[in-house]
Amino acid sequence: MSDQKATPLTVLSKTPITPTLFSFTTTRPDGFRFLAGQFVRLGVNPSELKNTQNAPDERIFRAYSVASSPYDEQLEFFSVVVPDGAFTSQLQHLDVGDTLYLNPEPFGFLTLARYQEPAPKDLWLLATGTGLAPFLSMLGDLTTWQNYSDIVLVYSARTQAELAYLDKIHELNQQFSELTDNPAKLHFVPIITREKVENCLNARIPALIDSGELENFVGLNLNPATSHVMLCGNPDMVDDTKESLKNKGLAMNRRGVGNIAVENYW
Ligand SMILES: Cc1cc2nc3c(=O)[nH]c(=O)nc-3n(C[C@H](O)[C@H](O)[C@H](O)COP(=O)(O)OP(=O)(O)OC[C@H]3O[C@@H](n4cnc5c(N)ncnc54)[C@H](O)[C@@H]3O)c2cc1C
Ligand SMILES: NC(=O)c1ccc[n+]([C@@H]2O[C@H](COP(=O)([O-])OP(=O)(O)OC[C@H]3O[C@@H](n4cnc5c(N)ncnc54)[C@H](OP(=O)(O)O)[C@@H]3O)[C@@H](O)[C@H]2O)c1
Question: What sequence ranges are listed for the domain FAD-binding FR-type (predicted)?
């Protein structure tokens, strides 16, 4: 579908996290379906936002991962603000009641359905920044908790203030651990790279894999026979981490077979 035929959404809530990070929820159009991990094209017309003046009267679209689960009544998104970015320098002015636009065709293959071989034991979800979003959606899907014995969520941010959704991750763990027999065990690994914070690791994801520190921290090994590994966020992280994983014998997932699946945000 073309972006210009997109469906209007109403903003229901906005949660500032830092001056350059926020999340928001919107209405979910009837019949809009997606798989956990997929992204949509989201549009804004800056001139229609309540808090803008003399803003351009045109719809601007960008790819956004859906952070809410396929079963939630509302849609949720987690956004960066790039000060000179055409989209987010406008989107940052968003307020409750504003209109956004959704191209209701879900895209992307960062989904657990892409793995066609029998489910191995452990799922590793490695994110930088807003790359957390598709993994939140997966953690809101019961089958994720049923299909693996261990889920390792690794989430890297520059500062403690930018490590968002900590309460949500805790709630999802509690909620889904009680919903099914023998649920996956969640191992949450927060990484803060530009500050020293207790209980958080303090190096980039590839370095933590190369040194063995990540596996030691979790108490599990990255294993070509048992691990599914998904990477999302900063393209340099994705490239560097792919190399680290390949050095451990893991392979890209192609035609359903192989360990590693990735999504680059820029
Ligand atoms: C498949 C896919 C899914 C995406 N999902 C999300 C999402 O859920 N949340 C989100 O905030 N963005 C997401 N993005 C990025 C998004 O599409 C835009 O790039 C972002 O909103 C910035 O738009 P912009 O026009 O302001 O700046 P752009 O001109 O698009 O980007 C300018 C620069 O900003 C930086 N940048 C862009 N996006 C990010 C980011 N997310 N985090 C840190 N730096 C960034 C890069 O250096 C980029 O070159 C996704 C991108 C892709 C391809
Ligand atoms: N975060 C801010 O303070 C800030 C402030 C103003 C504007 N912004 C805007 O937001 C964008 C950056 O946002 P962000 O902080 O969410 O994203 P980011 O730069 O991708 O940083 C998020 C995490 O990814 C890590 N990372 C970066 N490159 C990596 C690599 N090659 N391998 C492994 N990990 C890597 C970072 O570690 P390192 O710390 O080691 O890089 C950090 O922990 C900027 O382009 C800017 O426009 C951000």
Answer: 4-113
